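Task: fold both queries, return tokens.
Query 1:
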Amino acid sequence: MAPYQVTIAYDGTEFKGFQRQRSARTVQCDLENALKKLGWAERTITSAGRTDTGVHAEGQVIAFQLEWKHSTDDLLNALNKHLPVDIRVLRVQYAEADFHPRYSACMRRYRYQVYFGGVENPLLERFYWRVWPKPNLELMNECARLFIGRHDFRVYGKPPNSRSSSFRNVQTANWDLTGDGSQALFRISADAFLYHMVRRIVNVLVRAGQGRISQNEICASLERQLELPAGIAPAKGLILEEIIYK
């Protein structure tokens, strides 16, 4: 029996999130079903994070124990053979005995994807949020920088439980135009995130870029926990990009 650290990607469109549910299709269920076909008999796998319904990943990390007599490359190929096409194993490596995908991580990075247009683009709708009118990207980046540092993010999300802190340390937050300027990517990295935190931040930044929320209001939301207008960016634009370990 050996411990494994596995990096996976998935299109979250057809999943009811990552975490196992009794009567719904989830990423965890499909992964555990594939492992069972390779002789896995443990109770559960562990993961770096539990993405919501409709959220995607290209750098999710899971861990499990498995009796496997072949190479890590063979394990990668065997898992992919038994997984549906919307989940893929990207990397398999042996893990340290005390490794945990969540608690061993020092930083997480998410990417959010938007495109600008007055009409839906059927080739982008699955993985992008359509935003119109087009916001001011320079202003969005000015506002994004306000989130960098250690803040109380209770306005932007919920901690894992009532006893947990809502303080998080954001290391980077910035927007970049892509292609012909009709699309933009937002990347944010932090030690950890609250539930719905990234999608609420994206919604606020888009509103700010459209002139509907001021920088002063954002500052007040972080310094005095001023409630902002309700809203959350759609799940389909969010991708768990990378989990970073020491």
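Query 1 returned. Query 2:
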Amino acid sequence: MQSACANGSRLTLHQNSPHLQMLPCRTPWSSRTVVCRSSSQPNIETMPPPPPPPPPPPPPPRPTQAAPWYKPTRRDFITAALGSIIGGGAMYVYDTAIITDLVDELEEAEDDLDLAEAYVSQMSSAPTLEEVLEGQEGAPAEGDKK
């Protein structure tokens, strides 16, 4: 039995075949849907084989392990001790030789400044800083006045 589909092609009706691709096809004289098989449609013999299954997903990455705590060796302790001794000696030399010399120079500069200030105040007959400070020690502070 043949049937005409909406596109005008002639199709053969096979209702009981289990390997058919079902297409809704209505005839102009009936509202009933029929199963149509076209010669251009693939059937079980002409269909290509199914694609192979996808490969399995890769395994999850291994969890990262924490690095083991560093264990110092005897060589590390010896190196640290020598570095401490050498560093301490360098700081002692720096403190005694360089800083002491700098402090001595600073004290000499302060003495020179005091001499220069005394000379200038003597020339201008202005009171020196020491005289001003001595005068303020005996006088009451501004906040103590009543």
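Both queries returned. Flag for query 2: Residues 74-124 form the longest helix (51 residues).
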